[in-house]
Amino acid sequence: MGPIPQGGTVAVTGSAGFIGGWMVRLLLGKGYRVRACVRDVDDLTKTAFLRAMPGYAAGRLTLHSADLDEAGCFDEIFKGCHGVAHISHVSTYTDQDYVQKVYDHIINSVNLSQTVSRIVVTSSIAAVIGETDIQELVRRPVCDEDRYPDEGNPNRSAEGGQGYSMGKVLLEQAFSDAAEASGRWDAITCCPGDNIGPILAAHQKEAGPWQHNVETMLLGEYTVNVIGAYRNWWTVDVRDTAEAHIRMLESDDVKNGQRFIAWSTESRDVKDVCASIDRLLPELGFAGANIIDPLPEPVKEKEAVLRAVWGGCELRNDRIRNTLCMEFRPLDVSIRDCVESLLSVGHVKPKLKPDFELQA
Ligand SMILES: NC(=O)c1ccc[n+]([C@@H]2O[C@H](COP(=O)([O-])OP(=O)(O)OC[C@H]3O[C@@H](n4cnc5c(N)ncnc54)[C@H](OP(=O)(O)O)[C@@H]3O)[C@@H](O)[C@H]2O)c1
Fold first, then answer.
1. What is the pTM for the complete model shown?
2. Does residue 52 carry a pLDDT above 90?
3. Beta carbons of 286 and 276 less than 8 angstroms apart
């Protein structure tokens, strides 16, 4: 029970993903041994970037196939590990029994390992705010670690679109309860905001959704999010999210069941995010994007009201800054680096103004 030793061994689920990929890279940079878990190690479209990382050829980074849907898939991988970062998604959030089953078998593998002393689980701000009734945000506007979605609302259900939020609340509870029962390891939760920043491999531009949103902007068309209608982007740089996970694994000052929101508290409307691209990279000659609002008329009519509710929310990151000494990159840096990586790594061909062309 407690922090992992410097240079110890850490297993990372979801290593081919946006956050998981950065977690692997930063752990290697800090001298750890890393077991990167992906669904299929032979899928080179998703694993070539991991194989190219320093540490792979020498064996400090190893790759492992594990499909979360198969019980026991982590039994051998976690043996000998000091820490686990459980970052990956599950196959679906609509069936909460399935979600619980997956958590149970990851927990079994941690227990079986006899060596894991700490696990960090990746939750979401959807486990902080995930309201069926937006007025709940007016009643409780402070968005910090003590806030949870209104579990008492009778309309809160997976079928009603709350499955992701419910699955993340379940994740936090399931792992901290199991850790307490084991007495051998502890579970700390990271709730990241909207992740943006550089992709490490081309396939990551399709996920997100935030880096994918920037991709669609670059291509000239952006469709407004239906979920959380008219909410500003509440961002965190993906590199800061990964750094926060590592600090949670290393810290002496955290305790089982504690949760940390990882976001910079910067907030920006999507039109301003889009306009930022030309402001930050005038040399590119980005032509701008057509912003499409697919929301039904009754929702559109409430745009000003909804924006006022979101705007009244108070985003807090005191806990992560005070306990883990986290500093967050400015959103401008994340947008610039995201765009540059989408062009250079993702080979996105942006819509440009006349007389501009991409450097060959
Ligand atoms: N991105 C954000 O803004 C954001 C915000 C808040 C919270 N989060 C949380 O952060 C975590 C990572 O997000 P991300 O943006 O990095 O997602 P991502 O790029 O889509 O990566 C998620 C990974 O999950 C893995 N996965 C999905 N189903 C799996 C299964 N059945 N078995 C094994 N692996 C499976 C996939 O592995 P393969 O590629 O190997 O198939 C994928 O690489 C998620 O838990 C998400 O809820 C993300």
1. 0.97
2. yes
3. no
